[in-house]
Design brief:
Number of strands: 0
Shape: globular
Strand content: under 5%
CATH topology of the largest domain: MetI-like fold
CATH architecture of the largest domain: Orthogonal Bundle
Distance between the termini: 42 Å
Helix content: over 70%
Radius of gyration: 27 Å
Length: 320
C-alpha cells in the first residue's frame, strides 16, 4: 500500500496545458460533428444572444436618430408608465385568461389524440387520419385567419348558415368581444393539436409491448390498459411538455390575434404581444415595447423555474 501511495504521488498531475491538449485532440477527432453543429450555434448567437444588447432600450428614452450613445437614460420610468397605464390590467387579464383556456382545453387534446391513434389497429387508416390532423399546422397563419373569417361570416359563413337552418339568427361573431377568446382557442386547437400529438405518440411507441400483454392476461380491457399502462408511460413526457408550456404561458401567438381582432374587440382580445406590436411598430415607442417585452420574459422565467422546482419536489420530472 505504501509503495502504491508513493507511486501515485510521483505521477504528474494534469495541468492546464495537458487539459488544453486533450481538448484539442477531442476537437480534432470530432471535427465533423462540430462542423455540423456550427450553423445552429451561429444561428442562435446571431438571432437569440446578440439581440440581448437591445434590452438596454427598456431603460432609455431611445430615439433611432440618436442611437444608444446619445439617447438619454430614464431608469425604470418606462416600466412605471406601463404598470400605471390604462391598459395594464386589461392586457394582463386577457393574456392570463387566454393562456389558461389554452392550457385547460388545448393541452390535453394532443394527448387524447395520441392515445386514440395508438388504439387504432389499421395502420393505413391511422396514417391517413394522422396526416389529415397534421396538415393544418403547415398552413400559413394568414390563411387560417382567412378561413376563420369566412367560416364566421354573417352572410356566407358555414357556421351562420347552419344556425339559420336551425332557426337561429346569424351573427358576426368576430365583432362580439365575448366570443373572441373561444374562437381563438378553438382555431389554435384545430391548427396545432394534430402536430403536437406527434411527441406523445412517439412516447407511446417506446412503451414495452409486454406490459400490454401482461395486462391482457390479467383480464384488463382496453380502458384499463390505457389507465394502468398507457397513461403511466406517458407521464414523464406530459410533465416535460407541461413545464415547457408553462414557460410560454405569457407568450401568446399575437399574429393570429392581430389578424382577427378589431378595435371593438380590444376589450377581450388585446394581450401583451399585441400591445408590444402596437406600441413598438405602429407608435414607434421602442423603449416602451422593449420594457413590456422584458417584463413578459421575466415573468415567464419565474414561472418556468417555479414550476420546475415544484415538479422536482413532487416527482422526478424536470427540465434542468
Amino acid at each position: 500500500m505504501l509503495k502504491l501511495a508513493a507511486k501515485s504521488r510521483s505521477l504528474p498531475q494534469a495541468g492546464p496545458q495537458s487539459r488544453a491538449a486533450e481538448w484539442l485532440v477531442c476537437l480534432h477527432r470530432d471535427r465533423l460533428l462540430y462542423l455540423m453543429l456550427a450553423p445552429f450555434v451561429i444561428y442562435y448567437i446571431i438571432f437569440y444572444y446578440l439581440p440581448f444588447g437591445g434590452l438596454r432600450m427598456a431603460f432609455m428614452d431611445y430615439k433611432p436618430f440618436l442611437g444608444y450613445a446619445r439617447s438619454p437614460w430614464v431608469g425604470f420610468e418606462k416600466f412605471q408608465e406601463f404598470f400605471t397605464g390604462p391598459y395594464f390590467w386589461r392586457i394582463i387579464r386577457n393574456t392570463l385568461t387566454i393562456s389558461l383556456m389554452n392550457m385547460a382545453f388545448g393541452f390535453p387534446i394532443p394527448i387524447v389524440l395520441a392515445i386514440l391513434f395508438n388504439e387504432v389497429r389499421s395502420k393505413m387508416f391511422r396514417t391517413a387520419v394522422q396526416t389529415i390532423s397534421y396538415m393544418p399546422h403547415f398552413i400559413s397563419t394568414v390563411v387560417i385567419a382567412g378561413l376563420v373569417v369566412n367560416f364566421l361570416s354573417p352572410s356566407i359563413g358555414i357556421v351562420n348558415i347552419l344556425l339559420q337552418k336551425l332557426g337561429f339568427e346569424s351573427a358576426y361573431f368576430l365583432t362580439k368581444p365575448e366570443f373572441f377568446k373561444p374562437i381563438y382557442v378553438l382555431q389554435g386547437i384545430w391548427a396545432n393539436a394534430g402536430f403536437a400529438s406527434i411527441i406523445y405518440f412517439s412516447s407511446l411507441m417506446s412503451i414495452d409491448s409486454s406490459l400490454y400483454e401482461a395486462a391482457t392476461i390479467d383480464g384488463a380491457g382496453r380502458w384499463k390498459q390505457i389507465k394502468h399502462v398507457t397513461l403511466p408511460g406517458l407521464l414523464p413526457t406530459i410533465g416535460i411538455m407541461l413545464l415547457l408550456q408553462i414557460g410560454h404561458f405569457m407568450q401568446i401567438g399575437y399574429e393570429m390575434i392581430i389578424l382577427l381582432y378589431q378595435p371593438i374587440t380590444y376589450e377581450t382580445a388585446d394581450v401583451i404581444g399585441t400591445f408590444v406590436y402596437r406600441v413598438g411598430i405602429q407608435n414607434s415607442d421602442y423603449s416602451m415595447s422593449t420594457a413590456v417585452g422584458l417584463f413578459n420574459g421575466f415573468v415567464s422565467l419565474v414561472l418556468v423555474l417555479s414550476a420546475n422546482r415544484l415538479s422536482k419536489k413532487i416527482s422526478d420530472v424536470s427540465i434542468m
